[in-house]
Design goal:
By secondary structure, the protein is α/β, with parallel strands linked by helices. It contains 18 helices and 13 strands.
């Protein structure tokens, strides 16, 4: 079977999008061998043959202040990208996550008759739901990594496809705990609890004390339990070590740059709310989720967000599967009994079985499904 040549415009703005993009490129090449890719990507996408017109790091800007500071180069990149695609139109444009950058590009291209796809839905189901109208004007289809996202688009008469999550395809259904502990060179026979205060310095300053106080309480109840913290870089490690000086009786192992193995090695995790909760769930780790933010930010969130739960395991289960303690509920009195329960065999077994069900739901060949949905969009 012969294929017409296919030209794909594709943009990813950060490392997670680069991984998704590389998987999508591989799958598209297997389904349609005569295909070329051009846009913005990271090392994984470039290795798969994507021509990157700009460094991906140009788009990897987080936070309102940081975006404002970098607005001129971001606008320059966007203009360059749009003009390139208007001069030599692709058959389809795919924006991967990064909606604030990708949707305006997609909208301009769609107005010129170019098919457009958004891979990874903006959190429109959670807050600022009126953005659905902007999304409709910008893209022909949305590739959803979670089933509740497709349900939202169905209610708003917007074409969307649930493709699953590539992380669910990649992670084994039964993680190898012993191998992870050997890799980290930690006691293979001990009970380990991972403390995960976040990857940003601001999160660590806000959350680490609460987690260490909770660990101190758990250590008093269960003296044999050991604690481990993954750290993303030297600055985070220095900050954590400074705070640990206030806990001289608490034994904590720090591991730099290996959060995946730390989570795999742990028997239970207490962690800040975020995307890491998905990986912890796929690794079948009983967990407690917590978060604190500035009072004004919390006041705004309470008024803007329209979901019952904060953590992805609960959103996917559509029930309170893992304990969540946010803002004023984020106390040692609440976290300690919940974390202790994560080490009890009966509770652990129930939660792990629920995690297995969700893993099975998300593990459906996301790369190929996404590629098929893209080809369907332009057929």
């Amino acid at each position: 079977m012969t294929h017409q040549p296919l030209r794909v415009g594709i943009v990813a703005g950060e490392a997670s999008g680069d991984i998704l993009g590389a998987g999508l490129i591989r799958a598209l090449k297997s389904l349609h061998p005569d295909v070329t890719f051009v846009g913005i990507g990271g090392p994984s996408m470039i290795a798969e043959g994507c021509e990157s017109l700009e460094p991906m790091e140009t788009l990897s800007v987080m936070g309102l202040v940081e975006v404002i500071r970098h607005i001129r180069p971001l606008l320059r990149v966007r203009r360059h990208l749009i003009q390139t695609f208007l001069d030599n139109p692709p058959d389809v444009f795919i924006g991967i996550d990064a909606p604030d950058f990708c949707l305006p590009v997609a909208k301009r291209l769609k107005e010129q008759g170019i098919k457009t796809v958004q891979y990874v839905s903006p959190s429109v189901w959670a807050w600022r739901q009126k953005r659905i109208h902007r999304i409709k004007k910008s893209v022909d289809s949305v590739l959803c990594i979670f089933p509740f996202e497709k349900a939202f688009y169905d209610r708003h008469d917007m074409h969307a496809t649930f493709v699953g999550h590539t992380l669910a395809d990649q992670l084994p259904f039964e993680p190898d705990v012993l191998a992870a502990r050997q890799t980290l060179n930690i006691d293979s026979g001990a009970t380990w609890v991972a403390l995960m205060p976040g990857s940003r310095l601001s999160e660590i300053r806000r959350m680490l004390g609460l987690l260490l106080d909770t660990a101190t309480g758990l250590s008093a109840q269960r003296p044999s339990v050991k604690f481990i913290i993954p750290v993303v870089n030297q600055n985070c490690e220095t900050l954590i070590q400074e705070q640990l000086l206030s806990y001289p009786d608490l034994s904590v192992t720090l591991i730099q740059g290996n959060s995946h193995h730390v989570m795999t090695a742990a028997d239970a995790i207490v962690m800040t709310s975020g995307t890491a909760t998905l990986e912890a769930m796929l690794l079948k780790k009983p967990m407690v989720v917590t978060y604190r933010m500035a009072a004004l930010s919390w006041w705004l969130v309470k008024r803007l967000v329209h979901i019952e739960w904060a953590s992805l395991p609960n959103l996917l289960a559509q029930k309170s599967l893992v304990p969540e303690f946010l803002q004023e509920q984020a106390t040692v009195e609440n976290l300690l009994p919940a974390l202790s329960a994560c080490l009890d065999e009966g509770y652990r077994g129930d939660q792990i079985r629920e995690f297995q069900t969700i893993h099975d739901m998300l593990r459906c060949g996301a790369d190929r499904r996404a590629a098929e949905a893209v080809l369907e969009c332009i057929s």
